[in-house]
What does this fold into?
Amino acid sequence: MLGFSLLAMLPDADVFIMGLGSHDSIVTGHRGASHSLLTAVMVAIAGGLLARRYGWSGVRTMLAVMLAIGSHGLLDTLGQGGRPIPLLWPLTGERFQSPWLFLPDAPRGLKFISRYGLLDAVLEFVYFLPVTVFALWPRAAARIPRLAVVAGGVTEPSPRPVAAAAPSTPAAAENTGDLDLESQEPSLRSIG
It folds into this structure.
């Protein structure tokens, strides 16, 4: 969870590379290309491929990374301050901003450690508390019925004879009772 929280903040790493170009540039300025949905998709694909190398679900990881990074740009469009977001970069340089601006624009740098910055942090915490509670809520393991092949189970007579394996032990032979195993097909039954 901590890793995906850090991934959600990844688009704001553009503040460290602002010196590489104009502050108004879509590519290098703050709230630039790193906030686009295409960037989220590209990083998600890389994350999914990396996850598969470690035996994790590539598709599941890819979706989680895309939601974490892509939500940053979408949520920034709801922010009260700052520039609009180039969500569709590089397809278009147009910037987008929501007509509903209810997320505060947190102060940058050391100004964040102030009464105003603390108030913004608490307000964002309250906004996202339902999502956090949902993510951390303990869940019981999903009970998915499993199917098992049961030799000698109750089935309807098969129109064609099926050869069944002979019991491997005398105890297993006693448990078969009077059933004619050669005329019975294994049956599927739920054991979950």
User: Anything to note?
Assistant: The first strand starts at residue 147 and ends at 150. The longest helix spans residues 115-136. Strands lie at 147-150, 187-190. The helical segments are 2-9, 37-53, 58-76, 115-136, 170-175.
